Amino acid sequence: MIEIISIDISNFCSKQCDFCYNRSNNQGCSLWKPQEVIDFGMDCVANGVKAISLGGGEPLEYVGVFDIISALREACYLTITSNGLPLEDRHVYEKLIEAKPDKIHISIHYPHIASEVKRVMRQIKQLQNTSIKPGVNLMVPQNQLAASREAYIQLRKILSPEQIILIPQRFSNIPTSKEVASISGGEPFQSPSCLTKCEAPTQFCSVTWDKLASYCSFSSGKAPLEMLNYEGLCAALDKSQFISCMEN
Description:
This protein is an alpha/beta fold. The chain has a single domain (about 5-245), classed as TIM Barrel, CATH 3.20.20.70. Helix content is about 30%, strand content about 20%. Helix 1 (about 35-45) runs parallel beside helix 2 (about 65-70) and helix 2 (about 65-70) runs parallel beside helix 3 (about 90-100). It is globular, with a radius of gyration of 17 Å. It starts with a strand and ends in a 9-residue tail after the last helix. The relative contact order is 0.14.
C-alpha cells in the first residue's frame, strides 16, 4: 500500500544543475494547478497515504506552493525539498515559516563549492529556530568524494545523521555503494534504499510535473494519471514499468 508520495510540482528551476534527473531548467513549466495538487493530495491521504513530499524543479519558485503546503500539512506529514536559493529572499522565507511544512530538505548539489555548503549551513541554523525541522540532501558525485566527506563533517556539527541524506548522483558520475558509505566515516547514515538494491518500493511512489506516475523518481516507464485522485494513481502505477535508472 502506498504511504509516501513524492510530487514534483514543476520542472522550473533557475539553478539549472546539468545532472538534474528531472531535466529542470529556467524555461520549465508545470501541468499542475495548485488546487489540483491539493485535491489530489487530500484524496490520497483519505485513502491511506501518510506523507507527501513536494519537489521539482524548485518548488519554492512555483506560484501557489504555500497554499499547497498550508492545506496539506493539516492532513498529512508534509515535507518539501529545495535548493534553498529562494530562501535568500526574506519574503519567501517568511512565507515558508507561515505555511509550516513539517520538514524541509535543503539540497547541496555541489559539495566542492564552499559557498554553497556555507549557505546551506547558515540556512539550516536559521531554520533550527523555527517549528520546521530542517535536513540536508547531500549529493555525492563520484569525482567529489573528498569534498562530499568534508561537507558531511561540517554538517554533522549542526545536524544528526538522521537529518543528512546522502544522495548518489545518477545517470553520470555515479559513485559505488561503498563510496557513498565512506562519506559518513563509518557511522550509520541515511540514503535512498536503492543504494543497496534497485527494486520497486512497496510503500513509495513518484508523481511528475507532467502528471506521470511510477514507483521511483529516477525510473523511466512512467504512466499518465488519467484521473487526479488515488484511484487514478493506483491505475497509473499498475500500468507503469519499473525500469532501473542504471538502464536508462
